[in-house]
Design brief:
Layout lengths: L27 H13 L4 E3 L9 E4 L11 E11 L3 E7 L7 E7 L1 E7 L5 E7 H14 L10 H15 L4
Antiparallel strand pairs: 1-2, 2-3, 3-6, 4-5, 6-7
């Protein structure tokens, strides 16, 4: 499957709430291309709106850079439960290259989703899996890491991002 172009912030599609994938929609080709795109980027997660498809789909694999691949494709994911304990971690985004921000999120989440075979899945994600799942889930609701920052921190990073693109970007 082809590597897809990744949209860059502030593309308006990144701010849209994504539509659910319908029961008769085939997203296998999209998911395959999203994995190829994510690995090529190289990233640990990628949501459909980042490649211009405003549907509730994301892929992730937080282990592949350190060892074996463990790809997970989430169709119509939902967060079923979340830790009351918050953690902080530095996050980057393929749609905002060159920028990283410390983001506060629940330490773990229980997520439900449908896999490519149509089977309902549920898992408790912790550590990097929880961070990645929540980051990608945010994209499905039209949120990027900038949206999780204080106005002051956001302004600083937006300026840094704009400056990094250069005058011809």
């Amino acid at each position: 499957m082809p590597v897809l172009p990744i949209l860059r912030w502030p593309d308006p599609r990144l701010a849209q709430v994504c539509a659910p994938v319908g029961p008769d929609e085939d997203v296998a080709g999209l998911v395959s291309s999203m994995f190829e795109t994510m690995y090529d980027a190289p990233g640990r997660g990628l949501a459909a709106p980042q490649v211009g498809v405003v549907k509730r789909v994301f892929v992730m694999d937080v282990t592949w850079k350190e060892g074996a691949r463990s790809p997970v494709a989430c169709i119509n994911p939902e967060i079923l439960d979340a830790s009351g304990q918050l953690g902080h971690a530095e996050e980057a985004c393929l749609s905002i290259p060159g920028i990283a921000a410390t983001i506060e999120r629940p330490a773990w989440v229980r997520m439900g989703w449908t896999d490519l075979s149509g089977t309902r899945q549920e898992a408790l994600f912790e550590g990097n899996w929880a961070i990645c799942a929540q980051h990608e889930y945010d994209h499905l609701d039209g949120r990027v890491i900038f949206d999780r920052l204080t106005p002051e921190a956001r302004a600083v990073l937006e300026t840094a991002y704009e400056d990094s693109k250069g005058p011809d970007a």
